[in-house]
Design a protein that fits this description.
Elements lengths: L11 H4 L33 E3 L3 E3 L2 E3 L2 E3 L2 E18 L2 E21 L10 E3 L6 E6 L9 E3 L4 E4 L19 E4 L2 E7 L6 E7 L18 E11 L8 E5 L4 E3 L6 E3 L3 H11 L10 H13 L6 E3 L5 H10 L3 E6 L2 E6 L18 E3 L4 E10 L9 E8 L7 E7 L10 E5 L7 H17 L2 E8 L3 H4 L5 E9 L5 E15 L4 E8 L10
Parallel strand pairs: 5-9, 10-11, 21-27, 23-25
Antiparallel strand pairs: 1-18, 2-3, 4-15, 5-6, 6-14, 7-15, 8-14, 11-12, 12-13, 16-17, 19-20, 22-26, 23-24, 26-29, 27-28, 28-29
């Protein structure tokens, strides 16, 4: 007995991106929240991957990514500082103020990234503080801990009659606390004269557990330090603008360094996952995909923060770079979803199919067709969100509406949030146009069952094929099913049979892709 399990053909609509949800009200991914408190890195939480490269594109600097790193360690302390003003050798004024010292160890990214510039560090919305950057090591040498209020010499108890009694041996320039007041006898001149100072006590609520030091192997870290004068508003999110992200091996151009090519990131993730040996990676298809995205300027400038299935993430994200995830002879790779020229530009001339299937190839009962539902072909307006990335500043999320003329003027609207990594309007428009065109023009899917022949080794997922089958109408008229398709899935069985799942690839009367 032979059991056969095959994915239903109708699932191709969802798997190829034809089924989409309407626009939902939610913040764009490219809007970082820097107004809240400093985020804390929890045990078991995934480490982000900062992948970006700021460079000139058509004469304009673009790219880079704003990040909000989480803290793994902290050090909190404070003190009352006595500032003395001296004029001609005489102390003319004395000021007593509290200072708070905040130190945070921030985990920035997996791997090594480029050096962060001083102008690119933010404390809340302002450029403040100092920092050290390190790779594969702890960036700072300070120990984590909370020593808030350790400067106070003594806390005076309340007497039974409700008063506070100062000790008889008050030490000059030391701080004593009673109720909500700090008291000190301050030396005011070189001769040793003193005066009494009272300042209001401020309570600070820093964490008592401040983390423990680690090795941070394979990670980029930051040690951030800031001194605040007389403030309780210390807990602000630290952010940084990254110009040169994760150092990887570049497929286009060679060498090692920061990259904005999505395919470089995909290969890095494949290797880092530990589940895909290098000999199961299709380097030839990755080279084609990398040149395709580089030539058409489909760039990735963002941060990968969530832990999810690699195959699912690549399938979902590669769609927005007009790429598809492939598995050819057991090797995983990427290839363009659209035909391309020798220089990797998108082909706009007539397409030549790789092979033509006729009645001579298809087995009896080996033709199955599934039409895309009318709901999935309803006219829509695609709202694509992308991120305009100024230099050393927070990105601005922009939107572009893509619709066919005379259609969906009032919706429905379909969201396409690319703001997490897309930094050019051209990229957003082309990705949205592809989604809209496939929704409008792709009408059905086919499943063919054929015998193994020469095409067994030549056809791969993503190839364009022609299907020309003769059919006879109920009136006896001979017609032909003659259309062009893209191979979406290939299933080979032990019985010398091959199943091809095909997605309609619409062309115009000149044979050009629509």
């Amino acid at each position: 007995m032979t059991l056969e399990f095959t994915e239903p053909l109708f699932l191709l609509s969802a798997q190829t991106g034809l089924s989409v949800a309407e626009l939902q009200a939610q913040a764009a991914e490219g809007n970082p929240d820097v107004s809240g408190p400093q985020a804390v890195l929890k045990t078991g939480e995934p480490i982000p991957i900062v992948f970006c490269r700021r460079r000139a594109l058509n004469g304009v600097q673009t790219g880079g990514a704003m990040i909000a790193p989480k803290a793994s360690e902290g050090s909190f302390s404070n003190n009352v500082v006595i500032d003395k003003l001296e004029t001609n050798g005489t102390w003319t004024d004395v000021a007593v103020n509290e200072e708070i010292y905040v130190k945070l160890l921030l985990v920035v990214s997996q791997g090594q990234i480029g050096a962060i510039q001083i102008r690119d560090m933010f404390y809340g919305n302002c450029r403040r503080g100092t920092y050290n950057q390190g790779y594969a090591a702890r960036a700072g040498s300070w120990p984590p801990g909370n020593t808030i209020d350790n400067y106070i010499e003594a806390v005076l108890p309340r007497n039974p009659n409700g008063t506070y009694a100062l000790p008889s041996n008050v030490i000059p320039n030391k701080i004593y606390k009673f109720s909500n007041t700090l008291y000190s006898v301050i030396t005011t001149d070189a001769a040793g004269a003193t005066t009494k100072y009272y300042i209001k006590y401020r309570e600070h609520k820093m964490p008592t557990f401040c983390g423990t030091s680690g090795t941070y192997s394979g990670l980029t870290t930051l040690s951030f330090e800031i001194t605040l004068a007389g403030s309780t508003d210390w807990n602000k999110q630290i952010s940084a603008f990254i110009r040169k992200g994760l150092h990887v091996t570049r497929i286009v151009g060679g060498g090692t360094g920061p990259s904005d090519n999505f395919v470089d990131l995909a290969k890095y993730l494949m290797l880092q996952s530990g589940r895909l040996p290098s000999d199961l990676i299709d380097d030839s298809s990755l080279a084609i995909a990398a040149n395709f995205t580089d030539t058409n300027k489909f760039l990735f400038n963002g941060v990968v923060t969530k832990s999810e299935n690699l195959s699912d993430w690549l399938q979902k994200t590669s769609y927005n770079f007009l790429l598809r995830l492939t598995n050819t002879n057991g090797k995983f790779g990427l290839r363009p979803r659209l035909p391309y020229n020798a220089d990797y530009t998108i082909k706009t001339t007539a397409i030549t199919p790789e092979f033509t299937f006729t009645e001579d190839h298809v087995l009896s009962g080996g033709f199955e067709i599934d039409f895309v539902s009318l709901e999935d072909r309803e006219p829509v307006c695609v709202v694509a969100q992308w991120r305009q990335q100024p230099e050393a500043d927070f990105g601005l999320v922009r939107t572009v509406n893509v619709r066919y003329q005379g259609e969906a003027a009032s919706g429905p609207f379909v969201s396409m949030d690319l703001s997490g990594y897309c930094v050019t309007e051209n990229h957003a428009i082309k990705a949205a146009t592809y989604k809209l065109a496939t929704r409008k023009n792709v009408t059905h899917h086919l499943r063919l069952r054929v015998r193994e022949r020469s095409y067994n080794s030549s056809l791969i997922v993503g190839d364009i094929v022609r299907v020309r089958l003769q059919r006879e109408t109920s009136e006896g008229e001979i017609q032909h099913h003659d259309k062009v398709y893209e191979i979406a899935r290939i299933e080979k069985t032990f019985g010398s049979l091959i199943k091809y799942d095909l997605t309609h690839f619409p062309i115009d009367n000149q044979g050009r892709s629509i």
